[in-house]
Amino acid sequence: MTPTIAYQINRLLRGSVPFAVTMLLALLSVVPTGINGFDIVTPAFVSISVFYWSIHRPYLMSAPLVFLLGIFSDFLTGAPLGLSSLMLLAVHGIALSQRRIFIGKSFLLTWWGYFLVAFVIAMLSWIVACLYSLTFIPLMPVMTQFILSLLVFPFFAWGFGMLQNNLLRHT
Amino acid sequence: MAPRQGIAIRLAWPLKTIFQRFAFVALIVLSIALLFLGKANIGVIEGLRTTTTDVMTPVLATISQPVDAFNSAVNKVQKLTDIVEENARLREENARLLKWQAVGRALSQENENYRQLLNALSDPLVLPITARVVGDSGGPFVRTLLLNAGRDDGIRVGQAVVGPLGLVGRIAETGTRSSRALLLTDLNSRIPAVLEKSRHKGILVGDNSASPTLEFLPNNAIVVPGDRIVTSGDGGMLPAGRPIGIVASVTERAIRVQTFTDWSRLEYVSVLRYDLPGMSSPDENPGDLGESRLDDK
């Protein structure tokens, strides 16, 4: 009763969708937009994606994958190596431990959950970055990024929901 | 799926959970370790970083093309709306600049004559390499640009990066086909600068805000808002006299500088290959034309 190879490849490809989408979002977040100041406050697309998939498909967004995504975005942005992976792992850990609260509940609750997680992560990453460079880094851009991420969260959650319903229904 | 699970799998299930917990903690520890290791500039990590950017630069260049096309289309439409006023303004400016051109020519000739009289050495040749900006910092903690030209194109760490209006920053990392420029607004940026009029020298220090500060000026230096600031060329890595910006505000605590560069509209930048004979090592900064690709054509 071993499934056919075609079926397994199909399953594998579908299963890699959350990871591939998050990779693409990491790339998109460094593309220059030409909007004044946007490069500094680009919403944390990757953290939104990691949060969403950690709740809805935790086995497709496992800790090693989250770690790799963090390293990848640190390489791309030139940020201190390990900063993103540490923060994304924290997002993953919190989302995973609280997923029972979010599953099957209203979207507003998920949004509220992301608000709390993103706020903690913004403050934590700011503190780590300040310690890393041993200076006081302006807090304003970090907070702006947090608010923008919060505002775009519903659009991404909607998009991920579509992906989940169409491609990942049975995985 | 549950009925098919054997005894072995049922026994392995708690083990798997323990393993996952362990992996999670181990990865967090690894991330923290990487943060510490990153401070030490370890070769392997640097290599991995530049390899990643080398591989990803063509992808980013492709993704950013439609964005650029869209932006230039929007710009075109915006320009169309005030084309008449723009034309009138440009005519006026052209008339004024023609007068300046006559003055400039006369001064440059005069300068040349004086140089010959004094037998003064002229500055070495500066060769610009123009590269496309394919990535920005994408976050609040660093101010960098990713360029689609690297060591193969003659770019070396430390070279100056200039935009159409003024200095942008310096090269911080190079891969074979990509490089990373550290903007002069970044926390780690230090640029030797000079006040154009009074010739007092200082260091332009970035602090991740939009306007860097000018520090280490002599105590007797007189600075007023509006003073132009250019590169001083101290240290021999940057050519002297490149425009940086103007003094925006002078307070007790800091002298803030408004840069000339429009940070949101950097599509192409020039990396300056510059070599002071005898001062910089050719391996680190090959400013001579011998290695350049321009000769081959």
Question: What does this protein look like?
Answer:
The complex is a heterodimer of chains A (171) and B (297). Chain A contains nine helices and no strands. Chain A has helices at 5-15, 17-28, 38-41, 45-56, 63-77, 83-97, 99-102, 107-133, 140-167. Chain A has one domain (5-167): Arp2/3 complex 21 kDa subunit ARPC3 (Orthogonal Bundle), CATH 1.10.1760. By secondary structure, chain B is of the alpha+beta class. Chain B has a domain at 126-274: Thrombin, subunit H, CATH 2.40.10. Helices cover 36% and strands 23% of the residues of chain B. The model of chain B is unreliable at 285-297 (pLDDT under 50). Classes of the chains: A mainly alpha (171), B alpha+beta (297). Chains A and B meet through helix 3, helix 5, helix 6, helix 8 and helix 9 of A and helix 1, helix 2 and strand 1 of B.
Please specify the SSE layout and strand pairing.
The complex is a heterodimer of chains A (171) and B (297).
Chain A (H helix, E strand, L loop, with lengths): L4 H11 L1 H12 L9 H4 L3 H12 L6 H15 L5 H15 L1 H4 L4 H27 L6 H28 L4
Chain B lengths: L6 H32 L4 H39 L1 H36 L7 E10 L8 E4 L12 E3 L4 E8 L4 E5 L6 E6 L5 E5 L7 E3 L12 E4 L11 E8 L4 E5 L8 E7 L23
Q: Percentage of helical residues of chain B?
A: 25-40%
> First CA to last CA of chain A: what distance?
18 Å
Tell me the series of helices and strands of chain B, N- to C-terminal. Answer: HHHEEEEEEEEEEEE
- Report the β-strand fraction of chain A as a percent range: under 5%
**What is the arithmetic mean of pLDDT of chain B?**
83
Q: How many DSSP E strands of chain A? A: 0
- Summed up, the helix count of chain A is 9
- CA radius of gyration of chain B is 25 Å
* Secondary-structure element order of chain A, N to C: HHHHHHHHH
Oligomeric status: heterodimer
Q: How many domains, in number, for the residues of chain A?
A: 1
The assigned CATH architecture of the domain at 126-274 in chain B is Beta Barrel
